[in-house]
Amino acid sequence: MIIIKTIFNMYFCMVIHILLLSHGFSSVLSSHIINTSTTVHVSTESKHDHKNLPHSALTPHFNPPPTATHVDPSTTFHHHSSDNSEAVKQPTTHHHHARNDQIQHTSSASPANTEVTTDAYNAETANGTHVANAISDAKVDTKDIGDAGDRKNCISHYINGLPERYMAKDIYTICNLWPDPHTDIRLPTDVIPERYHVDMFPHIYNESDFTFDCNTTILIYCNEDTDIIHLHSMEHGINFVEINILGEDVWTHKYEKDILEHTNNPGKGLEDADNLVKRSLTDDEQKEQTTPHEYTQAPHDEETDELKVENCGVSLNVEMLHIKLNKPLKKGARYKLTINSKSKISNGVMGFYASPYMEKETCKEKFVFTSLMEPTHARYVFPCFDEPDFKAVFTMTIKRLGHVTSVMNLPLRKTIGPDVDGFFIDVFDQPQDVKMSSYLVALGIAELEYIEAYYKDIRSRVWTRKDILNHTTYLLDTSVQFLEFFEDFFQIPYPLPKLDAITVPDMSFSGMEHWGLITYKESAVVYDPPSSEQIVWQTSLISHEIAHQWFGNLVSPYWWDDLWLNEGFATYMMYMATEAVMPDLDMKNRVAIDYRGIQNVLRTDQKTTSHPVYMPVYHPQEIQDIFDLISYAKGGAVIRMMNFFLGDYTFKHGLRRYLIRHSSDTATHNDLFAALSEQAVDDGLDVTDVKSVMDTWILEQNYPVVTIEITDSSVCFNQTAFLETEEGRMNRSHITWKIPVTCTSSEHTDFDQKPADIIWLNEKRECVEDSKWSSADWVVCNLKQIGFFRVNYANENWRHIIGQLKKDPLAFHTINRAQIINDAWELQRAGLLDIEIALQTFEYLDLETEFAPWWAAIRELNTLSDYLKLTPKYGLFQNFIKKKMKAMYFKSGSKSSIKEKLLHSLISKHACKYELEACVDDALDLYKEWIADDNIRLDPDMVETVFCTAARNLDDKRYNAPKKLLRNPGLLKDYRKSLACVDKPWQVIRVLENVLDIPELYELGSSLTSSATGRWLTWIYFMDFWKRDSHKASGMLEEVTEKMSTAWELNQLRQFMAVAEMTKGDTGAFEAAERVVSARVEYIETHRTAIYTWLQGITEVQD
Ligand SMILES: [Zn+2]
User: Fold this and answer.
1) How crowded is residue 197: how many other Cβ atoms within 10 Å of its Cβ?
2) Which one of 152, 196, 680, 1093 has the fewest beta carbons within 10 angstroms of its own beta carbon?
3) What is the tens place of the pLDDT at every residue in 431-481?
4) Are 401 and 432 in contact (CB under 8 A)?
5) pTM above 0.85, yes or no
6) What separation in Å is there between the alpha carbon of 585 and the centre of ligand 1?
7) CB atoms within 10 A of CB 1006
């Protein structure tokens, strides 16, 4: 899961390595391979990244910038293979294998418990024996217990039956209560946390033993009498657990003392910088505190009538710690629960983990220690009530040596120390009590530096390692701008005194919105210098995370089934805020075609494998899985639609009403709809029941296509579920959406309509007596693609739309031009529109001057190009594309704004790919200038195009840049990638010889199969390689087959499957690939004649 994780930081050190090894072109590839294969982890994330691209036809340009984009959303999608999303979240399989050897237990039987033992907790033997003994000793009949069916009684019974005190592996299983994850996975509410005080002592100075001690004290309030406390805990070696009865005032009163007591452990005469308390521990006290307690000896207080912990158990299945008390806690009383634990620092990217980087000056590996707790990983750091609705007030201390800095999402109140060993204790807390969910806690410990700025009196700092400090000004400046924007938009002050950011070498999202300390993956925010695409990505990311400070942090979802309230809103706000703050990025149009935009997720949501926006989830893995394009992009898209039908005023004030009402609390989507409905009533809107409309969009998966029929006297609207296949559509035909339809016509053209103009389609079919459109040339509906649906028309109307595009495309809104192309092709592939019409949507492109329609068109052109590449008419198709791009290539050359740069970058990349002569010449000139003059830096927007074109067109000697790369190490990755742009047989073979042996480089396969030569040579080479090492070869199956589209390629594939030796898993993968290729071949066979006829016709017209 870790993307080639240290690579970014290793550039400098690596380039030296390459220079030493290399004597030209090929050694850049091979020497790099040597390096990566020995030092870099294989990343499933990077593979997911490119496999999950919106469509394989689009090459990395559309990908969020390297590694960055994908960070967030995408990698999560183990179960939604077509998706890839945000700055994304990544299931960390790490935990699954890591946890078993991290669970530790202390047994009263083991001698001298000065050090927690590291018994593999899951060890079948140890655990099995314990459980078996426990059951037989206590004569507990597990079946009886299971039949009793009462969780509480069973657990209580079971724990009481234990012959000795130790943690059982899985009480739930023993009690036959598993599997029922839907109910048992949630914590009961008989006790709730009000405050946490966590003392953390990370042992980070010896890499062979990265661990941390945690002393967690929780003030709990008892809702219902109970003698068992359940809370979350994973991968902790628990040293001791104790409980004390406590009045509310006692906690407050003891607060200062508590800090000292806990942070003193194992203190040796701390010097208190603020003179808070001065006290030296006696030798006995020191010994006492450095020796982990056995929880058999949980101390108790006479006054509390001997309330004490009787025993504890963990349930790995539900990730809980169960604490059995000798007598019930009393309803209405408060208690202090203390849990002392020791854990390993994770080498994954979740929980509390170590993220390595290479220090530039010394070429030494160092670490940023940081945390990522969303959605269910706070429990890996400290025992807690790890559900968003258990909000509490947090204070925390971190003990560290002087050469590192510790930061938290909470403000630093003071630093105590150093003690005689040189340790400092940083005390973090809130000046006012701010309640927050456990997943929003964050910390970072490393050799950090910062830059800072203020918005009003809110201090904003960017913390980072020294090497990249200079590259974080954009992050700082932009953060402050968005903080100002959102405060102004919501009219609700940011409630904390500070909003910091910290950059982390590697994390599983691009960014994470921890309240007060946003963590960013370095590769998502640090570029030198950024390309225009990277500026767009970085800016959107920052606005997304800052929007979360209100949507998610101030008001959190009651449970993860409403994750879209977090991610959908942050995604929608990201477009809206960026458009407002930086209009030059053109986010108002980009929303149609962006990675998290409308068209991308329409494509995801038209599959049978999609899921509803509101998604019942229970188990942590299920929760992890919905951090996907549906929650982010469809969530954002339906909110955009809601904003439209409510109007800006009602939307904004309704949101404000919702945020204020549920401030410092949690809410469900029904709470949101209620607040918006009240606002709508107050504002006198026609729509007064937001829920009845929105439920149809969030509770059902997929979306509708609306077909428009116009007669002389009426217009009729029909809706039906849109899925890719007839069968899929039939299965979903019972669903009716409430659809806000907007239309305009050649008679009265108005793409800027208001809520009052909406025609509501609430039934399957509705007709309006209206003749106003019967005389119009064309009608276009779903203006600005504001509704989350597709539109289809009669062929005649489609032809008039195309006629208008060729006459004057600017008559249509930019987004609608992109929509017309996108809808036409998706409808065509679903069998709902003739291919002639879809093809004709390309014909006007020489007049197109905007990014979004070009993006939509190029996506389809690339797909068609792959289909036609190994057919006799490919030359005609290539000429057609070159002719259409030529005018725009020259026009977009004069670029001053980011918007223009984005367009030029897009057009150049593809004009060069389709070998437009002027583009190829220009790219080669840029390359030669760059290589010849040390003072010239390549335009970051052109790097990929220049490198790829040079690799394809220059010989080895001329495409040899190691010396330049030493001066520009940031370009190494692009340079390496470009080596797969070649198309001469011997060059292709050379890359293959390297690539197939190195899984890290499989991603190059996609570039390699872009050329016709590369495509068939890769297949031939692959078949041979399979015989040598089928295990390695199987990892590349998807890349090798993803563009196959001719009957003879399909036959080759089938013949190979018939004779090759393969495992069951391989067979399944091949069969899946065969189905995809087969469908593609059938498609192209069906439409071959029509495509050829169109190509012939258009060529004659052009010539
Ligand atoms: Zn987010």
Assistant:
1) 22
2) 1093
3) 777 899 999 999 999 999 999 999 999 999 999 999 999 999 999 999 999
4) no
5) no
6) 20
7) 21
